[in-house]
Design goal:
There is one protein chain. By secondary structure, the protein is an all-alpha fold. The protein has one domain.
């Protein structure tokens, strides 16, 4: 094989390798990933706004941990006034019964539970939106590394 033939073979091999890398780069479809990032950011922002609005609208029915919400505490305080004159055990037993017998208190406790459930759903939506955005950014980072690798040689 002559030197010219060797050079031609080397050039053909390099061109074949370049074409393979170009084909691999085209398959990465980074443009598609970049184009959905604003959409994912908007979904996350909308979910955060929805949670904030929900918290504002239902502030009186949000409980912390195992404690009652402020509306339940307010009504229990009003009911406790009615139980004056009873000893502590009788008053506590009467107030406990009121949780099932008093329709207003039952309604407030029901709203407290549904508010907690709805808030949990909103928080799950936010977490999923965050994870989707984070995953796309991680894949994009991986593709960036792949592009650097393919273009480095």
């Amino acid at each position: 094989m002559t030197l010219a033939d060797e050079v031609k073979a080397k050039i053909a091999l390099e061109e074949k390798e370049r074409n393979r890398k170009i084909a691999a780069l085209k398959k990465l479809a980074t443009g598609d990933l970049v184009s959905i990032i604003p959409e994912l950011e908007n979904k996350l922002e909308a979910a955060l706004r929805e949670e904030s609005t929900f918290r504002d609208l239902n502030a009186g029915f949000l409980s912390s941990g195992i404690n009652d919400c402020s509306e339940t505490k307010r009504l229990l305080a009003e009911l406790a006034v009615r139980a004056e004159g009873k000893n502590k055990e009788e008053r506590d037993a009467w107030l406990t019964r009121q949780r099932t017998e008093n329709t207003e208190l039952t309604a407030i406790i029901g709203r407290q539970k549904s508010t907690a459930f709805d808030l949990n759903n909103l928080q799950t939506t936010i977490e999923m939106a965050r994870k989707r955005l984070d995953n796309v950014l991680k894949v994009l980072s991986l593709r960036t590394a792949q592009i650097k690798f393919l273009t480095s040689s």
